[in-house]
């Protein structure tokens, strides 16, 4: 493959994302300017099963990927010849789903003679903040809260991370999805709990907040809250008492947000930084945003987050990360493979 590295002022990247249940493609210039950001969601199909069915996801990515890429180019008003590199998510995620994007991107890069850049999905989520906040530069602290991951990282420089805390069991988004299922709200649960919580009392039920006693430990645990909600529902059912779903949703949500905000602010104190970015699907939660802004004001920390469309899975964020990898000369070869449990560091 002709790597033809071109590092001038304008680098046009075609990015592809297929790690879970969205087939997405985007055209991004210099990691910050989005010319198109096309997302084909499979949610309506997976909804029927109460969660993502990996085999179905892979098949649907195969069906959608070519058309989604073409739409991204059309919307950007460019052709394949105009792109400088192809960026693609190669992990973490569902292996079959990732493979569709990776194989497609490899074929494309090879046939066009353009460089290929592999992107870590989590890093992509963090980079969504660079699209939203054009002046944002590392170092800063980032709270990553998605369906599969919950991390607090210190981003020292582009591509350089220190993990300061992470979940020891369920991810925050996973807890939202499981609790939503428990109270009969359906999939995906996060947005539904967010909405229903507005009608509930967050102080109505005391759900546990897991904290760890080791010094400077910023880890999380969400499986206890999930079980506590299940126990509460079972207890109420046994007593034949009516369950106020809005109160359950609001109280659960508050318990999760309390620990996220507390640990995130603590991380800023430890690193003596005055900027925190939030990333991942749960970053679109309206109460989390409000609580983070409030805590930020009290602690003199600027709180940043991407618009909701850039919080959940999309390819624009992958295009942003790919640019910084490209600039460092991190070009993949045709042996690039899907790595379902790819780590950030
Ligand atoms: O980042 P993402 O799109 O996919 C992963 O990489 O995992 O995150 C999806 C997760 C799901 O668990 C979904 O329920 C959650 O983000 N989510 C939300 C909200 N919107 C999406 N959770 C809470 N409140 C929301 N508004
Ligand atoms: Zn994601």
UniProtKB/TrEMBL annotation:
Enzyme Commission number, as recorded: 2.3.1.234
Comment on bound cofactor: Binds 1 Fe(2+) ion per subunit.
Binding site for substrate: 144-148, 177, 190, 194, 285
Binding site for Fe cation: 121, 125, 313
UniProt domain Gcp-like: residue ranges: 33-319
Top-level EC class: transferase
GO molecular function, a single term: iron ion binding
Localization, UniProt: Cytoplasm
Coiled coil listed as a keyword: no
UniProt-listed InterPro entries: ATPase_NBD, Gcp-like_dom, KAE1/TsaD, Peptidase_M22_CS, TsaD
Family: Belongs to the KAE1 / TsaD family.
Function statement: Required for the formation of a threonylcarbamoyl group on adenosine at position 37 (t(6)A37) in tRNAs that read codons beginning with adenine. Is involved in the transfer of the threonylcarbamoyl moiety of threonylcarbamoyl-AMP (TC-AMP) to the N6 group of A37, together with TsaE and TsaB. TsaD likely plays a direct catalytic role in this reaction.
Descriptive protein name: tRNA N6-adenosine threonylcarbamoyltransferase
